[in-house]
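Quick one: structure for this chain?
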Amino acid sequence: MITAYVSLEVRRTLRDTGFAISTIGVPVMMYLLFTNLGTDDSAYKAAAMVGMAAYGALGAALSLGTGVAEDKSTGWLRQLRVTPMTPRQVVTGRALTGSVVVLPAITGVLLAGGLANGVRMEAWQWATVALTLWLGSLPFTLLGIGNGYRLSAQTTGVVNVACNLGLAVVGGLWFPTVLFPSWLRTISGFTPTNRFAELGVAVTEGTAPGAAALAVLAVWAALFGVYAAASYRRSARTA
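Got it. Here's what it folds into:
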C-alpha cells in the first residue's frame, strides 16, 4: 500500500510545472550565474555546484509540505485516514516521496557543473556526491511535511519559503561561509543546510565527511521526524 501511495504522490509532484521551474530551473540558473561572474576558479565551481544542488534539494523537499497542506484542505488526508495505513506509514510514504522528487534538482545542477562549467571529478566522486546529497535531504523533507500537516495551505507556503531562504543563506548554500562574520559562521555550523552541503563538498575534495556533520544532520532528522509525526496526529484530531 505504501508503494502505491508513494508512486501516486511522485507522479502528482513531478507533473507540476511550477515545481520543476523552482527546484530545477532556478538552482541551475543561479549556479551558472554565480560561477561565471568572477575568476575562473575550478574549486569554487565544484563547491558552488554542491551548494546549489543542495539548495535545489532543499526547495524540493520543503515543497512537499505545501502539497500536504493543500491535500488537507481538499479532504484527501481525511480519505487516507479511512485506509489501513497508520500515521507512521503515511508520514513514511511522504518522506519516501521526498526522497524521489529531490533527485531531479540534484541531477540538474550536477549536470550543469560537469557539462557547462567543466567540473571534473572521478566517476565515484560524482556518484557519491549525488548519493550524499540525496540521503542528506531527509531532514528537510520531514520539516516540510511537518509544516504541511500543522499549518494551513497559505501559511505553509509562506513558512516554507522563509525556511528555504533562511536555511539556504545562513547555511552557506549561496555564499561561502568564509565571507560571514565569525558569529554567523558559528551559527551556520549548527544548521542542517551547512552540514548537508559539507557532505558533498568533502567528497569533491576527496575526503570523508566529518563526524560532526553526520551528528548534526542526525539530530535535525530526528527532531524534524518527531515534528512531522506530531503534526500529523494533531491534524487528525482537528480535522
